[in-house]
Amino acid sequence: MTIESKTVLRANKSANVIMSMCDLYNISLEKGTDIYYKSDIADMIEDGVADLHCRSDKYLATLVWDEYSNKF
Predict the structure, then answer these.
(1) How far is CA 13 from CA 16, 42, 70, 71, in A?
(2) pTM, to two decimals
């Protein structure tokens, strides 16, 4: 797998997690994007920690939301 294909897959995963979070918690795309990219989970997905990118989009959306809820 090339670096470019890995980048595309991670971008697609991020978009799917954001959309899942918006659907699950009835928030705007802008807010979902902001929450996602400020989360530690997003950094861990990008770094390939614990194969998080293999988890379902909804599962990751709940992790990101839980992290956000605990901060605020």
Answers:
(1) 5, 10, 23, 23
(2) 0.91
